[in-house]
Predict the 3D structure of the following.
Amino acid sequence: MENTEAKSNVISADVNRFPSVTWHHLHINHGRFEGSIDGGIDFTSCTLPDSVRMKKIAVGELKLPAQIGTQMGPDFDSSVERIAAERNIPVNFISIGSGASLSEALTFTFRPDSSKKLACETVIFAEEGSSASLVFEYLDGGNGSGVFGHRIRVYCAPHSSLNLSTVNLLGVNVHHYNGIGVLQEEESNFELTEINLGAGDTVTGSMIVQKGYRAESSVHTGYFMAGKQSVDENYIVRQFGKETKSAFNSNGVLDGNARKAWRGTIDFPSGCVDAVGDEQENVLLLSPDVVNKSLPVILCGEESVDGRHGSTIGKLNESELFYLETRGIDREIARRMMIDSKINSIARNVPSEETRKKISESLSSL
């Protein structure tokens, strides 16, 4: 007799599907997540101001607009919700009050036991006219080979502004997913910064739906993958509103036998008159054995738009290294300087000095 109970916590799904498929031999149309979730995990947080409310809600009781789906895809999202309901994993519902303006970033820290298979569900509701910055830290919790997953869904009400950062400093044997879905109303502003230095295998990205007039978003991502680490990224923005703006900026470094797939999609549906979108990726390759896949794409169903995209892939410049050596800087130090420069150009967008210090310390230990 088949043990269905043992399989009830399993996630086995194609994820990070590219919105417009390309040649299959490139193996970039989607990624794959194979893992299981045994239970939930809570975070430690700073003291919350009166204008920010947080409560736990059962996943089946949560009502969100249908447009808020993550880049991971409906198959993955439905599996996560099924497991959350079966394993009693609640949703952390964070509400930022109407008109509230937070001067300091709110930091939420996870330190999962790396030998376990854990997940968290978070919903952020930025009410009308509010302004806030939230940072989620994922820190090393041991040498195990478990799973840590976080799904974040965001609603930006009209005229709200939300700055969100996720920082992955997990142990190198952890299997990690980070799924983000955002819905923006008129004249809202959303900014996302993602840093990925840890975990053995990471599946990450975001789906931003700009529903409202003059909604704006910007996404900054930075990663350093070495050894046998891998990262699979998928960033999508759908600009339905008129005069919307979006920007993607990715800086990454690959070393050893690391693997990376990056998909960036700007979607201009019919009716998004005078929308503007720009996506740029820069990758530094430090080893001939790395595997890099990059796919920046613009989908255009509207004529009156301005879209730009590009991807730059390069190696260490021998002339630059020679110049630095003549100034008394050896190759390893020069290499480290270039890695730090790539990552710190993105990390400076994280609105927490303490978190930026943790990123620097993690870089220095790699």
Summary: The CA atoms of residues 329 and 344 lie 20 Å apart. Helices lie at 4-7, 74-86, 318-326, 331-347, 353-365. The chain is about 15% helix and 45% strand.
